[in-house]
Specification:
This protein has four helices and eleven strands; from the N terminus they run E-E-H-E-E-H-H-E-H-E-E-E-E-E-E. The protein has about 230 residues and is an alpha+beta fold.
Length: about 230
């Protein structure tokens, strides 16, 4: 198992049931955790699975208003322009399509995320667990990533550091004040987005699970578990 600690000034883990205004879940979602691990190391031969989330900072909210573009170019028009067959004006003028929307964000967040990976059917003969484990630890130790990890939305980038685990998969922490412990809160967070099921790549389906925080710790079920609803 692997563990990283992530933190940032703001985060937005959008609740899909909110159609217009963006409202965050109270804590980071497993899909957002997976994206952070993939930012550090992604290969077709492995698949990251989130095991546990520890909330290290108290949950704080902030409401902001952001400018968003209310339209987007269709894929068909973009392809026509790329092929030199486009006719007409396909430009999107931001000033004419700007919309101001309220967003309910989290601020000053910090999480400790535990995850492991499994080998996929795309693994080659030279691929093995030890190879990718060493690769991930080396990259995480050096702060290397394919793209800057973010907390839900790309504008909310985050920092990360690798946390060493003992034989019982418990974090080996530094002495205070550098060490962070999970908050003492207990909350029933309700149904939370787990991830997307890409079995049908043309129509990925959302998966949900009933999230409960016990003294700042959220246990994440396996994807194949009956606790994950599709």
């Amino acid at each position: 198992m692997f563990c990283i600690e992530v933190w940032g000034d703001y985060a937005l883990f959008t609740r899909p049931e909110m159609k217009v205004e963006r409202v965050s879940y109270p804590v980071i979602t497993p899909s957002a955790c997976r994206a952070i691990f993939e930012a550090i190391l992604w290969k077709p031969a492995i698949e990251w699975q989130i095991k546990r989330i520890e909330v290290l900072n108290p949950i704080e909210w902030i409401s902001v208003r952001r400018n968003e573009v209310g339209v987007k170019m269709s894929t068909r028009n973009a392809q026509s322009m790329m092929n030199g067959k486009g006719k007409g004006d396909y430009d999107i003028v931001i000033d004419d399509n700007r919309q101001q929307r309220a967003s309910l964000l989290l601020k000053d967040v910090r999480y400790r995320i535990y995850a492991d990976f499994v080998m996929t059917n795309k693994a080659g003969k030279a691929d093995n667990r030890s190879k990718f484990a060493q690769m991930f630890e080396r990259r995480a130790n050096k702060g290397q990533c394919f793209y800057q990890p973010y907390l839900g939305c790309r504008e909310f980038s985050c920092f990360f550091q690798l946390i060493e685990l003992d034989k019982k998969n418990q974090p080996i922490l530094l002495d205070p004040p550098d060490a962070f412990e999970p908050i003492s809160d207990n909350q029933d967070l309700g149904f939370m987005l787990y991830d997307l099921d890409y079995t049908n790549t043309n129509n990925p389906q959302p998966m949900f699970f009933h999230a409960k925080m016990n003294h700042g710790v959220i246990s994440i079920p396996d994807k194949s578990s009956s606790e994950v609803k599709r």
